[in-house]
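Can you give me the bound-state structure? Components:
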Amino acid sequence: METGLEERNDQELLELARTDSQAFTVLYSRYYRHLRAYAMSFLKDADLADDVAEETFVRLTGHLGWLAVAHRPLAPWLFRVAHNVAVDELRRRSHTQTLVQETVAVSADPDETTEDIQSHVQDIRNAMSALPPFEYTCVTLSFMEHKTTAEISRQLGCTPRQVTLALNYAYKVLRHALSDILP
Amino acid sequence: MERDDRDIEQLLETTDWEPEPDPVREQASLARLIARLDQRRHRMRIVARTSCALGIVILVMVTGTVWYRWTRPMVTAVHETQTIPSSVVHLVPAGTGSAPNALQRALASLTGRDPRGLLTRVREVARTKLLRVELAGDTGYLLLLPGHGIVGIVASSSQSASLTEGVVRIVPRDARTLTAQDLATGEKIASRDVNVAALGRVVEAHPMTADVYQHETPYPEGPQQKPSLPYDPTVLYFSSGYVHLHRVVTVPIETADSHPAGLFAVVDIETQRVIAIVDTTTISGIILTDDPGPQLVLSEP
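Here's the bound-state model for the whole set.
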């Protein structure tokens, strides 16, 4: 992988990704896991979450030029697309409920289920699904990427104040949803 | 940040709530995406190259078409007027009409001009195949039929006076009355004419008021010889000479698209030939024919 690509910001990588697959790989490794987790919080299905994350990147391949030229922050766009794709999937599942239930039963990861039972991970995931895309992104960048409010605001193209408000709102939603397990 | 949120923050900090993806599936997904991206780039390159090539082709075609349409009439006119009739020579200003050299020809072809300076503007006569070619100095115009050459020469009205100096104007009362047979003959002559046939077909002929100018032919033995000549009803005698009387019939030409284009064939019954083809919607002046034939002035329609 080209030296220094990891240190580049999203906009620079978007510009490079139009001609350089390595830059696209960096974007992929930067966001795939978060998008999958976000989709997972909605769909409760690992396979479908993988599909949603991949579909989100498929759409990114078609919008690389536009995102690079328009200087739109990438993270909110990705989470918004993932949200839409996941909602479409939920809608489709509601029409084919029986089939989906069978799919979920088959595709559920037993190891993950065991792990969720042992801790409150599944509760947290369920609670996270109630967050809007922007708030979810802020929480992810803050606690998974360990970024400061200033860094998040730069990455999302917003003010630190907006990030703080989003995190406060997320805490409020999570507190309500996790009231049973919180001290 | 609010103090009460520390418990939530601690929970999120200490819990790895993001599910671990399957690395194999993650890599497979990345490989599919990279392949898709490569395919997309390849497609975009082809589209860009094709668009570029198409753009160049369209540009060349449009430029070529504009260039061709702009220069073609003058090129045709120059080609068709390589031999200039003597009557046109009287019209064009002195100094023009010299043979152009290669450089002049090249420059003229680049700028869409006549290298000899004889012809100034060329345009197509609407709904006909004719080209109307303006002569230098606004002295008149030629009507050209591509492939057939000059079919009509018209001097501007300002030139008419000087051009008719030294000729005799034969007023209608001098000429013999046109009969139905003359009109039929005029139609027949016009319908046989190759230039007329190239433009369309003739319709019913009708007499148009035409003043005929002619150069007098002096008596061979001087004015005194006049009485010794045998009487000829087709000849008009003057004290200084004589002229042959001409009967002129105008025959309308109907073009292929059936639009009344205002084209007329001017037929001389005496010489049994089409003197000229004229566009009567724009006529103003004298119609020239080769010397020593008749010079006509058609009245405005």
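A couple of observations. Chain B has seven helices and 15 strands. Chain B touches chain A at residues 1-2, 5, 7-9, 11-13, 15-22, 25-26, 29-30, 32-34, 36-38, 40-41 (CB under 8 Å).
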